[in-house]
Specification:
The chain has helices at 2-24, 33-52, 56-88. The protein is an all-alpha fold and 96 residues long.
């Protein structure tokens, strides 16, 4: 089990670094869904790794980081749903 947790933590660290490098190089927007998904996934996997190894300051940091990711993803999804709903509404003719 320990090797599996180590792999999860390593993948999480790589994902976070990749997301940071993509945003820093201008290849990805920090406001978009792909970045937020990578950010959340990396933080969640590092949280699991840290908690398993009883590294509580790191586990708590990544728990908060994951919570921010969930909140941000929720806002992005809600914003997209609102935009789709507004686009689907038929336009009313002027003067009616």
């Amino acid at each position: 089990m320990s090797a599996f947790i180590t792999i999860i933590g390593t993948v999480g660290a790589v994902v976070l670094l990749l997301a940071y490098a993509l945003v820093s190089s201008g290849r990805m927007s920090g406001n978009g869904l792909p970045y937020q998904l990578l950010n959340f996934g990396g933080a969640a996997t590092l949280m699991i790794n840290s908690a398993y190894h009883s590294a509580w300051p790191s586990a708590i940091l990544n728990l908060v980081w994951s919570g921010i990711g969930v909140w941000t993803l929720g806002r992005l999804v809600a914003r997209r749903a609102t935009a789709r709903g507004q686009a689907a509404e038929p336009a009313t003719a002027p003067g009616r």
